[in-house]
Amino acid sequence: MRKPIVAGNWKMNKTVADALSLVEGLKRDLAECKKVDVVLCPPFTALKAVADAVTGTHIDVGAQNMHWEKSGAFTGEVSAEMLRELYCHYVILGHSERRQYFHETDEIVNKKTKAALAANLHPIVCVGELLEQRESGKTEEVIEKQVRGSLAGLSSKELLDTVVAYEPVWAIGTGKTASPQQAQDVHAFIRGILKAISDEHVAQSVRIQYGGSVKASNAKELFHMPDIDGGLIGGASLEPRSFIEIVQGAF
Length: 251
Prior knowledge:
Elements: E1 5-9, H1 16-30, E2 37-41, H2 47-53, E3 59-63, H3 80-85, E4 90-93, H4 96-101, H5 106-118, E5 122-127, H6 131-135, H7 139-150, H8 156-160, E6 163-166, H9 180-197, H10 200-205, E7 207-210, H11 216-223, E8 230-233, H12 240-248
Parallel strand pairs: 1-2, 1-8, 2-3, 3-4, 4-5, 5-6, 6-7
Helix pairs in contact: 1-12, 5-7, 7-9, 11-12
């Protein structure tokens, strides 16, 4: 039985003071949450403060990005080891915004994924199609390319330490949401790819999140589809009550 995982991607939002205020609002209901793995992914500037604030709770912390090298002349970047030093356990990789605005390819995501795993971080690897790709019937082609490319060369153990997040780009921040059945169909397809690149045990064990305009009103229906194991939540993770209700939707 796969344990649901709900991660809040705060993106470029929240000062340290704002972050701590949000965490305090979340801790009242989620500090003892054991039914769902709850992960908060604040901006880099708030990672240490948030990690300190959730110490002693069942809430984990993740970063939103990292470089694949351990160190070097990469101005503005951070490494997996630096994140581990801040008590991060997860890192989001290959988000559509990174792919779109910073031109990250599957090959780059793959290098980052391997570096994260080598540092004992759990990568949350994002995949998803554009609206025109869905409308032209290319969803499966796009998703298979991204999954195979981003996870290329990973061992069974490494795959088991990885989370996949299906985020249709057309549903991110738009208010549009894939129907539960649309999301389930792609999640099942991803599980089939995992079986092809590894085996049935890995395919049935890897957790696959859904992301894209998830809110309290649709979370439960989405999360209770057989192949959807929680969500990667954007805007709705920035307000305590909405995020708490989304997490509760995974119970």
